[in-house]
UniProtKB/TrEMBL annotation:
TM helices/strands, residue ranges: 6-24, 31-50, 74-93, 100-122, 128-152, 173-191, 203-226, 256-277, 289-308, 320-348, 360-380, 392-416
A UniProt-annotated Pfam family: Na_H_Exchanger
Alphabetical UniProt keywords: Cell membrane, Ion transport, Membrane, Sodium, Sodium transport, Transmembrane, Transmembrane helix, Transport
Compartments reported by the entry: Cell membrane
PANTHER family registered for this protein in UniProt: SODIUM/HYDROGEN EXCHANGER, SODIUM_HYDROGEN EXCHANGER 7
Residue stretches in coiled coil: none
Annotated GO biological process: regulation of intracellular pH; sodium ion import across plasma membrane
Membrane topology: Multi-pass membrane protein
Primary localisation category: membrane
Protein name: Sodium:proton antiporter
Record GO terms (molecular function): potassium:proton antiporter activity; sodium:proton antiporter activity
GO CC annotations on file: plasma membrane
Superkingdom of source: Bacteria
Amino acid sequence: MDVIVITAIIAALFVLLGIAEPLAGRLRLPYSVILAVLGIFIGGSASFLLRTDLTDALNPIAEAVLNFPVRSNIFLYVFLPTLLFQVTLGMNLRRMLDDWVPIVTLAVVAVLFSTVVVGGSLAFASGVGLVACLLVGAIVSTTDPSAVVSIFRSIAAPRRLARIVEGESLMNDAAAIALFGLLMGFVMRGVPDPSLWDALRSFPLLILGGAGVGVLLGQVAIMIMGRFGRHELAQLSLSVALPYLAYIAAEQVFGASGVIAVVAAGLTVNVSAPGALPPAVWQNMKEMWELLAHWAGALIFVLAALLIPRLLEGITWTDIGLISVVVVAALAARAVILFVLFPLLSLVRLSPPVERPYRAAILWGGLRGAVTLALALAVTESARVPEDIQRMVGVLATGYTLFTLVVQGSSLRFVIGRLGLDKLTPLDAALAKQVVAVALQTVREEVQQTTENYGLSREIVRSEAKIFGERLEGAVKAAENSAEILDRDRVTLGLIALAGAERDMILDRFRERAVSPRLTDRILSDVDRLLEQARQSGRLGYRRAARRAVGIDPAFKFAVRLYNRLNVSYPLARLTADRFEILLLQGLVLNDLDRFIEARIRRIHGRRVADVLHELLHRRAEMVEQALDGLRLQYPGYAEELERRFIRRTALRLEKREYDMLFDEGLVGVELHTELLQRLDRRFAREDKRPALDIVLQKAEVAKQFPLFSELDEGTLKRLSRALVTRYADEGDVILTRGTTADTVYFIASGAVELRAARQSWRLGRGELFGQLAMLTQTARKAEVRAIAPSTLLALDEQRFRRLLRRSKAVQKAVRESAEKRGIELPELAATKPQVAAES
């Protein structure tokens, strides 16, 4: 085909993409549905023009459209990696982890189950071989939730629903395409049905091999991009090459799944790039990939839709009956997963509950699209697949895709509306009226001030003020006549607003380069959790999420175990430095939120609600400060270094603002402004490097701050510091259980614990010890000890504790007082001397 013709068709396709989006908005239909309809119309029109005798003038255009050189390998090797890679870059992995069970269930379990149900039903109805029918089942199991997500976003549907569907879209395509590749190989080799077990056995290797290739190439790409420094275009170019290299290497070199390799490479970049690349580069990279994915997704839809008339050529009533079997079987399989398996997972507490309206929306929103058509086209183009199977796959996959797009896609917005997912709750509706009234009052004050400053005509000001006053009066009456909002609900709404303000403040700090992108993603995930928990459970949910944000996560605990048992310090050093920086930022933001409550929330919800919010914030601030105290105790001076670094970065940000203002005012020329910004960039780059943290605990300094160790001499203190082992406990963690052997004593460096024994409880805080009484009385532990706040503990074994007890009167006094509180008689502590001497 002539190059000019191909160029003209490509240009026309981009014109089509530009027209389709506003058309979809006007018709209130998913963008992908409009693209499919336009593609089918163009393909059908081209076929009609070639067959009709009405005119021959348009035949060259029709032939060019139908013979456009696009095959399935273009879809799979060019468009698909782009789509998958962009989805992984845009995912909030930490928030996805909160719903990983329903996401994995939909993306993996549902794919396998749907493949088996559709394949089995089709084999029973058609009499075709099971492996070929399973191939059809794998093809139609790839959902296209982009249309659903776009609708959810346009109607402000719950974030959790969009998050589950987005997570399914990524992993679903990967699992279904990997399964398709496996079954396709067996169909092409003509392997009989009994060998299907061999396919299932090799499936894990296909997945693991692809994941390994993707992770490896992703790490190599990040390492190279990090060395390119300020060469942003080179870094962006490498990111474009990465998914294609991963796909080709996995498929052609290692015989693994290229789709899994692309997903693994994208997830690797998602996790590692924010800490390795400058914030501006990372942001530009995500924006570039959004545009590339938009083009790729739209083009694959249009080009695949052009082929639908050809794929459905010669369709019979038997084919329509088999398409109906596929439709019923696919919907039934998805319904079983959503309405049977999901409740069971929630019942056994393996997954948070997914509300019934959510499940109904996910069921009807399982649209099939470009990927399904591309896989079906790959089958029809393979000369090694029997012709009857080619035709069956092409007709059934295409027919089912049309059903989901035309029937489900066009009615999806209606279904979401019927489920009530697009409506404000009565509480939100009542609040909206109050918000409008308060906002208009503020606007009136500011407009009045503005008109006075500009000295506008009094008649014009008076006329406009009258119109605005009528609107304000109507808003106030509507707010007064709305349903009464309970204080409890006002607190919930205030917490939601507070979490939203916190998110905006953190994003502002990110734009000001006060915090790295990698930590920003983590902090924003915690804020999103605050918001969702406040929506679901009000004040209790907010407190629970706040404790989790300050607590010790599993990765940190694992790093502590690595250090304590294997002396591997790097993971703990990195995570501890992260924790320092996050806690410092949280403390700064919490101070700003106090002012936000007074400036904004109190005007809407009143003083009583504002006081409750202040109290909740103060509790969060206490938890943050307590956690920081524990870190400062272990690493004296490091928090001070971070605070100094924050001040220096703030000064650089303000300096940049001044240069920009001078440039905007024309007082500084372009050349000078560029030179000044380049100097600032170099200084920013130096400050971007966080000071190193020496994880080898300065235990001697820590020990000096304990009142119990104050009378020890330098030599004893150094020996003690080497013997102490650091332990971390999150709120709710059980540190000691009843009936265990007493062989360790714990000193509380920060935090607090609670001892429970015989229906009594005692609380201990910083500077106190526990675990010594059972040891000294040589009995099994009778108390359970649980952390009631994130705590840092210093553990000492029995032999060394007895030595310490012999030498320290302060420790002896603390042990006696502890025994008296609990009514336990101890032997004379001096009597432990012979035993200690014998032990030593």
